[in-house]
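Let us begin with a simple case.
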Amino acid sequence: MKEIKELLSELLSVPGTSKETLEEIAACCELKKFSANEIIYREHENSRFWFIVISGQVDVQYLLKDGRRQTLDTCLRGDHLLWSALIEPHETNSIGIARAETDLLCIDGKRLLAICAKDTSFGFRMMSLVASVIRRRLQAARKQLSFSNMH
């Protein structure tokens, strides 16, 4: 597998990030592997890491009142998960399940926020990325609601 700095350069999706900032972020990363059908995170947990999918697939699901889980989105290579690691109260609001064997780049949320505060230009671009991830989830939820209302 590629080196963490190389993966960050490819997958972070924050254009213009300086080499120094990338090195700081790499220092607070770890790689994790999940088996197919393994739960990566549960709803209402402390959200410590910002995840980037390296390989595999992660289903983002919501727990319905009747106990069933509804998949709203499927994340693939380069997609970002757990915006809650960067937004208070840092609590997950969905369930993440590996659909297939999956490798994730896990970035410590507290340390990433400190880097954002230090390099405010990067921080602004990073928070724009967070907003786009939230927007994607809201669009996915809206699509599911529309689909559910049709049936």
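The second case is a distinct protein. As before, the sequence precedes its structure tokens.
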Amino acid sequence: MDLPFILQNISNAMSLGSLYALIAIGYTMVYGILRLINFAHGDVFMLGGYIAFYSMTIFFMPWWAGFVVAFGLTGIFGIGLERLAYRPLRNSPKISIMISAIGASFLIQNLATVIFGGRPKGFPTPDFFNKVVRIGHISVVAISLIIPVLAGILLAVLLYIIHRTKTGMAMRAVSTDLPAARLMAIDVNKIVSFTFGTGSVLAAIGGVMWALKYPQLNPTMGMIPGLKCFIAAVIGGIGNITGAVLGGLLLGFIEIMIIAFLPTLTGYRDAFAFIMLIIVLLVKPSGLLGKNQIEKV
């Protein structure tokens, strides 16, 4: 294997891993606040791609305006999803909330099939994102360079919000002890809505970037990426944002390198994600950057 071949695959791995990281952050944010696995997160990812698609094809918006509309509407959808499906069950047993999340996921998928149709749709990728950039002996499509840079910027902004703003301080307080946060006059509902909205916007950004990189939309497109990003969040330490990014990058590298160096195992690339999850849970159940926690009953 020559150096250009390795570098080419590293760039592909960075791009895929950054996509996983964007979606995994949403999982880990919601879990960090409510100890809830939002199984509908992958379907929110799918909606972001569809809204951007129809904004550009039906309403003839410029691509950048369509993307902004997709991010905004998906964020609002995430807030509405929390209020309708999760907030009424906040004081119920955890199994009830989990069942509600699974039900919401299937509902969104089936509604999307009815509304958008089951036939895959080609995403209109602007020429800007398809430009080939040559770096030395390797050629990289522009979108593969944009995704890691965008993921890094969004991670920096999110960490700033969490560690340097009053909203972030309230998020950390709610994550640590929700009843005590209420006693300190923190509007828990507002913080939870902000968390769901932010996570949904990140999922929408991931969905649009995914559609630009793999330009095809279908109502179930969020299922496998959603599962993999959940795995990435668990591997990194669910509840830890930096851990989610690390898990996403690690998962992306493993997938791409398996395809590159062991092409006969390409058909098993999804299985390796689950194998990796099992190994991490056996060796370090809290994840690579996670901390051991006592489950509150």
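The chain has a mean pLDDT of 90. The longest strand covers residues 132-135.
Keep these points in mind for the review questions at the end of the chapter.
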